Predict the structure.
Amino acid sequence: MNYKKNLVTLRRELHQIPEMGWGEFKTTAKIISILDNLGWKVYTGLQQVGIERVMGRNIEFVEKSIKRARESGVSEEILERIQGYTGCIAEFDTGREGPVTALRFDIDCVGVEETDSPEHLPNKENFRSCHPEAMHSCGHDGHTSVGLNVAQWVIENKEQLKGTIKLIFQPAEEGVRGGAAQAASGLLDNVNYLLGAHLAMMCPTGEVCLYPTGLLSTTKLDVRLKGAPAHPTMSPHLGRNALACACTTVSELLGMARHGKGLGCINVGLMQAGECRNVIPVHATIQMEVRGETDEINNFMVEQACRIVKGTALAYDVAYEIEKVGEGGELRNDPELAQLVGEIAKDVPSCDHVVERKKIGCSEDFTLLASRVRAHGGKTEFFVVGADRTAAHHQREFDFDEKGMETAFDIFTGCLLKLNKK
Ligand SMILES: [Zn+2]
């Protein structure tokens, strides 16, 4: 197999069908059929998620996505296997005793409309997104392509390997929603080594970063307030004003105390309230997130936020509901595994240098898969594989140097050859 070429081909196919979190039906169907053909055991649908830990999954959006997948020719048989829950976990048992090594690849896209600039490579080379308002502008198309090429490589090189390889194709990484659910599936509990990587970020082509920093622990919360309607002049005393409650809540949230041990952030990104001019407003919604340099700081922010919502709701006599719709933890890499990745990277032809501790400044729910693995005695490592990019991540002009996929592929397969060598 010409992996160099196939990495690009698959990435470009995936780039055309970007799907947002929990809606990745076309993408998942494609992944499953490739893995099936290669002879992997594939856990799909409810087998690969802990349903009680599924977060931020909008049913209407899921149904629309299934409909689109069906209309573009995804078979009923595969849709049945997906059971409405995208992503999958593949397993290959070499039949020889040895460690269980898992690699994680996220598969979802971002909700932006791809640029129509003729300079943008997907336009020039004719592989732009064919879904409106959805685009792989974070490089997860590249991650998925790397994962599928590793799947092929494992089969072609199985005689050199021992133990078991698992490939995690994770849905809904954006908004840190899918990691917790896959961690709760239990399918990672026997994993000895878990590796994950992100393309590009702050690293140029040829660079690999072993201990990315500034990866923040985070919790995403939706708050719903419910008051009571009333005539604003005839019987205002009978009303319960959810809009007023939401306003006070938001001001209190933004002014909450920070933690002395490090960075803590809060953002309220959306507030909607009220029904019409002459009725005391009944409904209000607040979408917010908190982040912290560590889990401890993040938890401090979450507890405070919940207390503020509760207290303000009490003050306004309004009913409240808080839903956790996303979660990512702090990143903790195992030094031994990080060193191994570093050594392998140095021998990879497309990698010219390895660095440590560059700052990213986002969040990742790989951390939740990792903490599950660590809780069962396994080791974990998350690194960044450099790739020049044309714009910042999540922008409509984003594109990355496809050579980065080669580097990632060579590092992952190099790790398998080390950790699972017969
Ligand atoms: Zn990303």
Observations:
- The radius of gyration is 23 Å.
